Amino acid sequence: MKRCVLSLLLTILSFVVIGQGVEKQVILSSDAPKAIGPYSQAILAGNTLYVSGQIPLEPATGLMDTLNIETEIRRVMSNLGAVLKEAGMSYHNIVKATIFMTDIKNYGLINSVYGEYFKDSPPAREAVQVVALPKGAHVEISCIAIRGGF
């Protein structure tokens, strides 16, 4: 019992110590669509960038770019790229991505287009089918990127 309590206290202490000194900075790119809810496009905490899910909204108009699924994927990747650029990063800095899609039958096409952005050392990733996405989008991608000497 004493060992469990000590372990728990050390875990809590490590979170407190690690959390001190890490500032949270909101990243906002005018070249990516404005958030459509109470969230930020991205948050930079230390050297880690947490990018909110991007859907195929045109940044200038806020309208969906839904000509076809390939167009949607390219718009989503462009929006991600704009947020990364605003934080001084690029696709190369992405270490983890999550893809949400409304139809798993689009998995192959999504992989094909997505893969164009990651020729070498693609990030860890999962891809899941969901029932629906905001504004009727068919694909949404979020990611985590690390600033560093890659």
Oligomeric grouping of the chains: single chain
CATH homology-level superfamily: RutC-like
Estimate the global geometry from the Cα principal axes: globular
CATH class: Alpha Beta
Q: Tell me the strand percentage band.
A: 15-25%
Strands in their spatial order, largest beta sheet: 1-2-3-6-4-5
Rg, Å, rounded: 18 Å
Number of domains: 1
Report how far apart the termini are: 44 Å
Quick rundown:
By secondary structure, the chain is α+β, with helices and mostly antiparallel strands. The chain is built from three helices and six strands, in the order αβββαβαββ.
Structural topology:
Layout: H1 2-19, E1 24-27, E2 42-45, E3 48-54, H2 69-86, E4 94-101, H3 107-115, E5 124-129, E6 139-146
Parallel strand pairs: 4-5
Antiparallel strand pairs: 1-2, 2-3, 3-6, 4-6
Helix pairs in contact: 2-3
List its salient traits.
single chain, 150 residues, alpha+beta, 60s Ribosomal Protein L30, Chain: A, 6-stranded mixed beta sheet, 6 strands, 30% helix, globular
Task: Give an overview in words.
- With 150 residues, the protein is of the alpha+beta class.
- A six-stranded mixed sheet has the order 1-2-3-6-4-5, with helices on one face.
- 30% of the residues lie in helices and 25% in strands.
- It has one domain: RutC-like (60s Ribosomal Protein L30, Chain: A).
- The chain contains three helices and six strands, in the order αβββαβαββ.
- The N and C termini lie far apart (44 Å).
